[in-house]
Amino acid sequence: RNFVEEKLGSRYVESTRMDLAKSCEDSSPATPVFFILSPGEDSLEDTETLGLTSYFFYRQSLGFTRDSGRFHNISLGQEQEMVAEEALEKAARHGHWVLLPVLQQNIHLVAKGLRTLEKLLKQYSEESHPDFRVFISAEPAPTPEEHIIPQGMLENSIKITSELLTGMLANLRAVLYSFDQDTLELCTREAEFKGILFSLCYFHACLAGRLKFGPQGWNGRYPFSARDLAVCVTVLCNCLETHTKV
User: Fold this and answer.
1) Residue 236 pLDDT
2) Which pTM value belongs to this model?
3) Where is the Dynein heavy chain AAA lid domain (predicted)?
4) Residue 85, SS3 per DSSP
5) Residue ranges per domain, the chain?
6) Helix (H, G, I), strand (E, B) or coil at 138
7) What angle do helix axes 226-242 and 43-53 make, rounded to 10 degrees?
8) In sequence order, which ranges of the chain are alpha helices (DSSP H)?
9) What CA dihedral angle connects 123, 124, 125 and 129, to 10 degrees?
10) Long-range Cβ contact pairs of 121-129 (< 8 A, separation 24 or more)
11) Which secondary structure element, helix H or strand E, spans residue 135, and what is its range?
């Protein structure tokens, strides 16, 4: 790392925020996108954001959201195999997006369903609506014995992963860059809002950086994700707008 930084520059060793839209340009009905999740990553939020505002298909807002009925999120491993199959069939026919998270805590329930899913993906790779897309997400298996994702599914997918950020600066920078200008101008009490927002981001970076301890919460194991931070920002704005005294 030090050698590369010295000879080529710091930009080759600093982690940057992933451009999901650019990464997904090569996806197709026959080529799913497979998210390999790091602790705290939220593939649902990223995929919904992409479906709502990305321009990589038609250079216009796509509108693949749950509200429009064109985005389906079915967690595998919760006895929802039939629900997933129905969603895939509907999405392939009408050109919807389907996100299928593989839950690590229910990984022992998913093995049979993944084999069926692999066959369905192959079946729907032909003669489906051109807008049909499948997104799959899973955490890396702790041991080789627990690795149950079919090899064919992995080989046919675009694999996307974001490496864990190291250091307070990298984590803090990534969190701050996730907020756009509209978010920063969300609250009328701008000075207080930005000050406390920075504190929340700092707190988030602290938790995200405690890799040695894993996802530890207060009452149980829990990764403080970007979605949790977004909820905190909404609560912060509501509190500042409601109460006169900070």
Assistant:
1) 92
2) 0.64
3) 193-243
4) helix
5) 18-161, 168-242
6) strand
7) 70
8) 2-8, 20-23, 43-53, 81-94, 111-124, 151-155, 168-177, 181-184, 190-208, 226-242
9) 160
10) 121/32, 121/88, 121/153, 121/156, 122/152, 124/29, 124/88, 124/89, 124/92, 125/29, 125/30, 126/30, 128/29, 128/92, 128/93, 128/95, 129/29, 129/91, 129/92, 129/93, 129/94, 129/95
11) strand 133-138
Ramachandran sector of residue 147 (left: φ over 0; alpha: ψ -120 to 50; beta: rest)? beta
Residue-wise pLDDT for 64-107, tens only, equals: 766 677 888 887 766 677 888 888 888 888 888 888 877 655 55
**What's the CATH number for 18-161?**
3.40.50.300
* Among the listed residues 49, 84, 74, 86, the one whose alpha carbon sits nearest the alpha carbon of residue 64: 49
**Cα(91)–Cα(230) distance, integer angstroms:** 29
